[in-house]
Amino acid sequence: MMSGNIKKGLWMALYSAGCGLMLSIFPFIKSGVNLIFSLLALVIAIFYFKRSSSLRSRIVFVVFALLFFVFFTFVMAVVLYSRSQSLPGAA
Asked: Which chain regions cross the lipid bilayer (predicted)?
């Protein structure tokens, strides 16, 4: 069985990854649909804040959500850039 701290940490990582993913999708969609992703990020944060009451865990959630946002944004930018570029021929 998992201890309580490990379980809380995994839930925090899952919530922050979801929030970071929703925030990273936001700038890549140009229509009004992108507002749905920002609202989903807000809903995820509200659910986590209801689940966790300590200030420390909330701060860690925000920091990890920002780190996941940067990571997912970088990955999406690399994927979109690599799809738009043609691969060089073998020399």
From this structure: 9-26, 32-49, 61-81
